[in-house]
Fold:
Amino acid sequence: MVIKKTAGFRWEFPLQTMYFLRIELVFIALIAALVFLMTFFGMGDAFVAGLLFAIVFLGLYVVISRTIQTIRQVEEHYKISRTHLEVTRKTKKRTKKFKVALKDVVHHKLDKIFLGGYVLTKQGAKHPLFFNTKKELEQFEKILLKGLKK
Structure:
């Protein structure tokens, strides 16, 4: 995470220490609970079988998820200044760059729980945003709101 005290702000997503998104963890926990409950009640109060199936489900999910992350190697770089938002999306084979003037942003939505959001431009383009920490999100929001007031 790179935080600068200048007129702009930069961050990268995901960090090397981040393995799962918060929203991903919530849904996987719910699905694992459903697997446990369905096995528990479906097999006639079989606690051990339910627990075993839930653990197998979680293990398979982790292995498949890490394999996909390793294969895709997705990386996003963001930079916001007083006037523009720059987004660079890198995958293994290609790089896409977007530059959005803050004066063209007509709507934005940020979620402080799941650390994500988007900006919507006058041209109708929707640019998703991902954050590693709540501090990054709040710093981005502060600069964005200043830029939108101009």
